[in-house]
Amino acid sequence: MKKLSTLLLATIVWLSYSAASYAQSVDEMIPKVMSAMGNAKTMTYRFYAQERMKDGKYSKSDVEFKVNASPLRIYAVAHLPESATLLHEAAKSPDVRVKKGFKLTLSPTNKLLMKGVHNPITRAGFGQIKKILETSIAQRKGQDLASFVKVLGTVTYDNKECWKVEINDPEYKIITYTVAANETSVWQIGKKLAISEYKIKELNDIGDEVTPGQKIKIPSSYAKKTTLYIDKSNYLPIYHKMEDEKGVYEVYEFKNLKLGVTFTEADFQL
Description:
Elements: H1 2-22, H2 26-39, E1 42-52, E2 58-68, E3 73-80, E4 84-89, E5 96-99, E6 103-106, H3 111-114, H4 127-139, E7 149-157, E8 160-168, E9 174-178, H5 186-193, H6 197-204, E10 215-219, E11 225-231, E12 237-244, E13 247-259
Antiparallel strand pairs: 1-2, 1-13, 2-3, 3-4, 4-5, 5-6, 7-8, 8-11, 9-10, 11-12, 12-13
């Protein structure tokens, strides 16, 4: 009987802990997620991506990253879609230095660097997803956060216990946008509106350049549905899945993430 009572007590404690981990409200969680992303200053991780390209097929990426957020320094060893070593040091240059058997210096959005990917390596870390979420929430100012952000329970991902969070945009649609007077590139539009530049180019069958006054198609927001796995230990979204009107658009995974890494100059040598 004593053993049974002990077992019952242990079960109650476990259930209480489990319920507490589910009980995190959206209003409590999202500010902590935003803060965690803003406070992630130095990190290393292995980045896996699947991105839908114009032909409907998915391109895969596999990149090892070292990221120092301020001043921004990024060292990347890419295995897919092509092998190369890349270095970006914002304080020294806006460009990316590349070693691929030979060395060259390119704009982050150069066609050679953007082949088979949606985003430049200068977006390594959590800054981009933070901006997307902030913009999505700002677009629904005055609405109850819980009306479009749902906590669906917990999942184990990369040996970490995570909350599974789903963000839905019932108003997502393709709209007509008039290029502003100071805009000459889809990268300016994407940055301003926190939407995918690749999506803009795909919708309009264009390259990087646009002309002021030009009317183009753009998505009203980054994604129709976003699924995130939020690591319970640090509140960082280590898995992202974005869906648009056609289905899965992008999947991003941050594996073996280490925070608070102390770097030396040797870590950023090409």
